[in-house]
Every structure is written in C-alpha cells, then in structure tokens.
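Worked example 2:
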Amino acid sequence: MEENFNMVAKTLFGFEELLAKELTQLGAQDVKKGVRNVAFSGDKGFMYKANLGLRTAVKILKPIHSFSVSSEQDLYNKIYKMSWENYLKPTGTLAVDATIHSNLFSHSLYIAQKTKDAIVDKFRDTTGQRPNVDLKFPDIKINVHIDRRQCTISLDSSGDSLHKRGYKTATNIAPINEVLAAGMIMLSGWDGQSDFMDPMCGSGTMLIEAAMIACNIPPNLMRKEFAFERWQDWDVDLFEKIEESLLSKTRDFHHKIMGYDKAPSAVSKAKDNVKNAQLEDFIDVKHEDFFKTQKGGDKKLHMVFNPPYGERLNIDMQEFYKNIGDTLKQNYPGTDAWFITSNLDALKHVGLRPSRKIQLFNAKLEARLVKYVMYEGSKKVKYLK
C-alpha cells in the first residue's frame, strides 16, 4: 500500500469551497480550506487523480520539508542540509519559484535564486557534479513558500498551471482562464440538466468547460505533461489505472450547449477548440450578435458568459451593458443568466437587479459574478401561482 502524505491544492480567490468539495468527492482525506488553497492528504495515486480530475485547482504541491527561517543565510543552510538526492539526480535539472509573505524577505526571485544555489552547491560538494536550471521542462519543480518566519519547501507535481488543459490552440483577444470558467459554471449551479448558452463565447472556453462538467469528463486528460512524470518514483501503470477509473465515471448528456459570437474569427477559433476537445457532439457554435437573438422554445436555459470589460476592447460600456439587460429582459424568458465583470460601474446600466453577486478576481482585476433570473411571463404571475 502506498502511504498517504500531505498536499496543497492552490486555487483562485472565491473557489476554496468548490475545491474542497471537489477534493472530498474525489476521495481526499483531511481536507482543510485556506485562502486560495485547500490542504488535504492522499497517496501517490491520489496525487495523479487530483491533477487529472480537479476543475478548480491551478497546482497540486507536495510539501517535503518545513522549518522556521531567520535570515537568507539560515534559509540557505537549511535547504543545503535537505536530502535532495531522494528527488533529483546530480546531473538532473530543476526550476524554483517562491512566494513570500514576510517582512524578513522582500524579493521572491532572490529567495528562489538562494534556494537553487543551496541545492546546486550541495550536489557539487557531495558528488562533484551539479544539476542545471531548466525553466521549461525541469526534472523537479520546487516551490518555496515563506509566511512570516515559516518556510515550506514543496515539489510542484503539476508543472504548468492546471488551467492549461491542452485543448486550446486558438485564443481571442481577451480569453478567460479555464479554471476561472469552470469555477464560475460550478458556482452558477450548472448540473447538466438543462440547455446551456454562452452568448459571447470568444474562443469557446466556457462551452468546453460546461460540456466537461455535464459529462463528468476529467478536465486535464488532454494535457501533454504533468511535472510528476519526470519524478524518480513515476509510475506509469498506476497513472493509466487512475486515468481509466476517472474515464469510467463519465455520463451521458441529453441537452444542448450553444455558443454565439459576433466576430467570425472568434467563432472559427471556438470551433477549432471544441474539435480539439473532441466535444463537437455536444457543442454548437454560431456566428450571431447576441443583441439580435432570442431564446428558442420554452425549455429552461442556463447562461454563463464573460462580456467585455472595456479593458482591452474599445466599446461604449453604458450602452453595451444596457443592451445586455434589455436583451435578457425582452428575449430570454425562463433563463438564469450569470456573467462576470470587473467593470462595476457598467453593472448599474444593466437595468435589472441581480439576485446574487459573488466577488472573484479575473487575473488581477477584482470582479463580480452576477446572477439575473428571467422569469417566464411576469414576476407577479409567478408569485401568484
């Protein structure tokens, strides 16, 4: 039996609850929420499973040592003392990144450099050989986290951020991060039991994440590589077994997922990405201007989208957000509409009262995920029933 060890899944602000729930459902133990992270424990197979199967995680870290630190020299000495030969060959390659929340140290790049020096010096002094730095495909990727005086050294099991799912070859001018898209869809309560629409679908991220959620497809099946595949204890048979067990839990989906965009270039990129994700059976992308469309049929519709914020696209924000409100009100009865925006002023022009507002961040921009419920007929009638 593989032994359990502690791990940390990093996520975006506002998704901690979602990630804790995902981890619990996958079978993690000792799940504890933090800020932008969730700690848990599991064995090596579960580490593979977490990387393949979590929608709202951006990294899975495996802490290997923790100590208090008082100066840069102290940090160097303690890292030098660690048994690095358990993780890396003398001729191997490494990369180091650091996050610092401390008055003692001000520069994360310098801390990463100091860590790298200690590891390289240790190998040179004990074996006469030294590992090299490789930022693209290192044998091990090391994460240094200093919180006040407490330092945790972890191995990064993911490598590239887990939002890089592997299906996206084409993006448009302001693409949404895949983890942010998945988290928004999950916060919106989408469960695959109704039609889904993204009326401003850009390169199709929201549509693809919605289809994967509806069909319970593991989000990171298409990734080219995880960092743990270069570790000394990499177990390809175990990995394939985990992959098969996740794939055996996929489910059928009996509704429609539709995407509109008024830019022909966005539509063709979205179609390419949908094809890469092998989800053409579930997703239909059309060249349409949302403001000139209306809902077809009287089935319940679930809508999640990421309208332009005016950050990178030059539009009249007041007019644009008023059009969103008018289109929803007049043309989309029986719809739950959710969208994210960092333009909090523009929200006032939608002309509808949101029934929910959730604080999130889109990259560094503070944003709100808002929900508008469009009732069938008038609201008054609904209350009288």
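The chain has a mean pLDDT of 93. The CA atoms of residues 100 and 107 lie 8 Å apart.
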